[in-house]
Amino acid sequence: MSAPIDPPSAAPVRRAGRGRAREVVGELLRRPRALFGLAVIVLLVLAAILAPWIMPHDPFEQSFDGLDLMGAPLPPGGEHPLGTDLLGRDLASRLILGTRTSLIIGVVANGIAVILGAGVGITAGYAGGWTAAILMRFTDLMMAFPALLLAIVLAAIFQPSLMIVALVIAMVNWVQMSRVIYTETRSLAEREFIQVQRAIGSGPLRILGRHLLPHLLSSIIVFGTLGISTTVLLEATLSYLGVGVQPPVPSWGNIIFENQTYFSTAPWLVFFPGLLIVLLALAFNLVGDALRDILDPTLKGRH
Amino acid sequence: MKTILLSGIAGIALAAAGATGAAAQVDQDAPQGGDMVVTYQDDVATLDPAIGYDWQNWSMIKSLFDGLMGYEPGTTTLRNELAESHEISDDGLTHTFTLKDGITFHNGREITAEDVKYSLERVTDPETRSPGAGFFSMIEGFEDWNAGEGEGLSGIEAVDDKTVEITLSRPDATFGHVMALNFASVVPREAVEEAGEDFGRRPVGSGAFRLAEWTPGQRLVFERFEEYHRDGVPKLDRVTFDIGLEPTVALLRLQNGGADVPGDGIPPAQFLQVVNDAAYEERLVEGGQLQTGYITMNTRMEPFDRVEVRRAVNMAINKDRIVQMINNRAVPANQPLPPTMPGYAEDHDGYAHDPEAAREMLAEAGFEDGFSTELYVMNVDPNPRIAQAIQQDLSEIGIDAEIRSLAQSNVIAAGGAEDQAPMIWSGGMAWIADFPDPSNFYGPILGCAGAVPGGWNWAWYCDEEIDARAAEADAMVGDAAAREAAWRQIYLDIMEDAPWVPVFHEQRFTLHSDRIAGDDSLFVDPVHIPVNYDYIHATEGQ
Amino acid sequence: MTGYLVRRLLESALILLGITFVTFVLLYMVPADPARQIAGRSATAATVANIRDQLGLNDPLLVQYGRYLAGLLQGDMGRSYLQRAEVSTLIAARLPASLMLMVTAIVTELVIGLTIGVVAALRRNRAADHSLMIFSFVAISAPQFVIGILLLYVFAVQLGWFPIGGYGTPAHFVLPSITLGLLGAGWYSRMMRSSMIEVLGQDLVRTARAKGLSRLRIVTRHVMPNAILPIIAMIGIDIGLFMSGIVVVESVFGWPGIGQLAWQAIQRVDIPVIMGVTMVSATAIVLGNLLADLVAPLIDPRIKTK
What we know:
The complex is a heterotrimer.
Chain A: H1 17-30, H2 32-54, H3 91-127, H4 129-143, H5 147-157, H6 162-189, H7 192-199, H8 204-240, H9 252-259, H10 268-295
Helix pairs in contact in A: 2-3, 2-10, 3-4, 3-6, 3-8, 4-6, 6-8, 7-8, 8-9, 8-10, 9-10
Chain B: E1 15-16, E2 35-40, H1 55-64, E3 69-71, E4 78-80, E5 83-88, E6 94-99, H2 113-124, H3 142-146, E7 156-160, E8 163-167, H4 175-178, H5 189-195, E9 209-215, E10 219-224, E11 238-243, H6 247-255, E12 261-262, H7 271-275, E13 284-289, E14 291-297, H8 307-316, H9 319-325, E15 330-332, H10 355-364, E16 371-378, H11 383-396, E17 399-406, H12 408-415, E18 423-425, E19 431-432, H13 443-446, H14 464-474, H15 480-497, E20 500-511, E21 516-517, H16 520-523, E22 537-538
Parallel strand pairs in B: 2-11, 2-12, 16-17, 16-18
Antiparallel strand pairs in B: 1-13, 3-4, 5-6, 6-8, 7-8, 9-10, 10-11, 13-20, 14-18, 14-19, 14-20, 15-20, 21-22
Helix pairs in contact in B: 8-10, 14-15
Chain C: H1 2-29, H2 34-39, H3 45-55, H4 61-73, H5 87-122, H6 127-141, H7 144-158, H8 170-200, H9 203-210, H10 215-227, H11 229-232, H12 234-253, H13 258-268, H14 271-299
Helix pairs in contact in C: 1-14, 5-6, 5-8, 5-14, 6-8, 7-8, 7-12, 8-10, 8-12, 9-10, 12-13, 12-14, 13-14
């Protein structure tokens, strides 16, 4: 086992406030990969907002011509650029409309989970002692919590809605992240550069924000971006149990979920929504990676 | 009927072979020997005939156990099984069964009249918690015994070693069918008492096969019972059940030679692929089944308490489109009974698809602008899709139905509450006959007895006059034609009140490998569902 | 250390107790009647009432819970409502298959995930890194059902290398392990990459380079041990993720594990089985987390067990 290593003990001088933010954005825009990621995100957000105007067909219309005589869906091409689904509806239109649900889940609900998870992990790791014991045992409890059962009960009690499914996701998805962040923070908190900050009397918030967070950023980005994929799919499972959006409202997740057994006969029904999920997660990942490179003190100026 | 977790074609039971009452569909000259592999997705919960009521264990229990009565293979024709003879008194109340000579359980002991009495008392004993107890309610003394009072069923008497006399409290034309149900199987007391609650794991019966091996969640092996009471039966030496295989994977196995029969049928997603494949043309089997998929409308909730509204909904549904959507694996329905059920009204047209007229009828009932409601549906494909098709049809006439797609047990619970589910699509939980008799589509799902909290009459339809006529029809022992006519009229009158929209009757499609053969009807047996293991033979008999 | 372990075990027991209670309450609230599920659709109201009575379902929640707990303390998990068999027997028959699959899947995901992560970090921002990144995101986004069937179709049906589902020989483990492990491999590869990059940027690496140590030696002796810490923290998490993935994978491959048992029990409101399976999986998760916390200080001595 090698000796653990300390990062440089002094972070580079930073300008604070709005100037710094402008600088970061400027840096981002100079990086082609980050720019590509941003463009994808902006496009998807626009698609969600402008859905009613850009959908080629009515996403709910079960067109008689949308199925062949044996009742099979139509492959991509012609009238339906991405094909039709098992009810003869235009897949492209359903994917565009589904962007709304999936962005809310993958970005908003997942984002809340990320903030919650990072918050709990950092607090527990930095404070240690009883605070850590209580927070981490609560995390254990939530991790072992029978979330599917909870979903079944919620489905029976409440009217299904996107809100509830987003809440359930935010509630169950922070735990993984909090554990990883906790372990990393525990290690960081014992290192010299943090100890020095403590000794010179820096406030905890300053230490957290200035000295801990930059080193945790990479894990946060990994969980945040991969979480996009898993939450978008999790939404489909929860909706299946009756908690979330109900048919005929589309989401990327439920389009995959409903059609996965048909993927050998109608692969487009799984391929296109899957592609969108990967694209969304990748886009955030590209932006996140770039952001990390810009902000991380140890990597400054070495790309 | 059996509670089913699967959906569509895979989940359904009781198929009716083309011709009911046809001669035995059995190739007497077929060689004995060989084996086959059958696959199922869901685990086998129990092989106790008093308890098993699932898709996968129903036919297994039939092959392990026998009752007094049974059916000709591949048909719905009743025949004597363990009974040598069955005599009915003139008033229809006393049934005398004489047992065959020299019949034994798998443990080698001879079956006596006492065993019959013990078995029927066991299934109706409240301690057994049998889902089939209610079928035996016509036997005298049932009420007391099933309530936990008395010393057994007073209506059953073992006259001597070979003779059983069963007295009924009311004449019942379905009694023969009831005695052929799995629940009426004869079991040996000593084996049950020895195994206790684990009898379902260590079953001992008198059927054509006996259980040789059971690896939970994985495999069951049945072996030929050499002392079986019918000569030359079963044909195969061994049947292996591979459990836990997803239908898609089961099909891959069959195509690869690793399985002979997909117990869950052809999965909907691969249906067109298989049907259009010339390689399977010879070995693809289709059968009708005693099943109806329907929409219930809660007659005690507004606005479905108005018959005009219910009729309008009946006219709004485009059944042809729904049938097309599920790849024509069904035929459109216009009444509760399926076409192969005695009592089916051939010349009945039902409510024709006519959205225009439906809208007018709604307007007359005071709903010019339609209304909003909820449609409950079980969440397994293809049911949510069918619900969406129904939703679109309803929106055509101005009804805005919101879909609630839930787990099966939640839908059942909602249907059993008087004021919760205005509409339910029954798919995945649809009624499939327990036995081929028209009465089986009434009681729990359309009669007053089922319109109670926790019941299965999700339309909450209760017409006491019809209830009385139903009881009358069941008591018509002897005159089959008159009884059939009475039931036919009952269902037509119910459709006047339109508590349901009968949507379609599912067809069953299955497939088998070229290692085994037998009449097509054996592979879609209407009673020994889904497959009659006892009479299928190997093409290369050893 | 011993004190810490004792405290943690006590806490774990408390968590498990909490889980049993929460699960019990949820099952009590589920609006589906287990007695109805047992009685079937032809049952009369009287039969259902009788079953409810026999199973004690009419008792108040706390009485039912107390009874369950009392049984549990004597090692009695009750009998399945539908299968009638002892829950402990049902679980014991299926747990080994699930545990073994879990172990092989963890090995699979570690091998695939760490390899990809290390390669991607060393080839940072080059073509290899980008293709591996796409691979990781596809692995995480693809439904396991689809992956499983695809693998079966290619490697079992077409190539005939492995059996088409089932359980028994080592060959049976390969495809289910990959299907189950691919998701985790995606996670691990991204975690490993980012934490490698973090460590690669630190002083020690620069010092080691300056000393003229070989690249391989730097990576294996200095970078990887330091980068692996966050991965350790994921052991417990993995078990949690497996619990959901295992239902699908077991059903695709006909694997006789507890995932199948759990899913069928949930569908049919078989309360004793649901309780039993939840207990088992909660125990696995809690112990996995405990293990992770115990291993972390061994990797990074600065972390103290308090």
